[in-house]
Specification:
Number of helices: 2
Helix content: 25-40%
Distance between the termini: 58 Å
């Protein structure tokens, strides 16, 4: 019985994950990577450039983020050659840009349409 109780406590403590700045940033980068795949798929399925579209559009199927990550704004698009551009802001200060140079965190002011 004591083993079961100890195992239950261990599982409960593992479930109470808290966000750290590094894990939240990693989640934001992963989210944008997934959007990049989705917008590229949309381009290849239609053969046409994807106009600027909110990342939460049904076209991409990217509705949810985690309980620690608040998606404030996100736009994805491709040009006529299929090159993706995604700009997103999470939690007010985590800005992520995905372009020909890759996926990376940038200052909010460096995003297209940034503040």
């Amino acid at each position: 019985m004591k083993r079961i109780f100890t195992l239950a406590l261990l599982l409960l403590s593992a479930c109470k994950r808290e966000a750290t700045p590094a894990s939240t940033e990693a989640e934001a980068l992963d989210y944008v990577r997934l959007v990049r795949v989705a917008v590229s798929n949309a381009y290849y399925e239609t053969g046409k450039a994807v106009p600027p579209t909110p990342c939460t559009d049904d076209l991409f199927g990217m509705k949810k983020t985690s309980k620690f990550l608040n998606l404030e704004r996100c736009s994805a698009q491709t040009d006529a050659a299929g090159n993706a551009l995604i700009a997103a802001v999470f939690n007010g200060d985590i800005a992520v840009l995905s372009d020909a140079q890759g996926v990376r965190r940038v200052p909010v002011s460096e995003l297209p349409g940034g503040k």
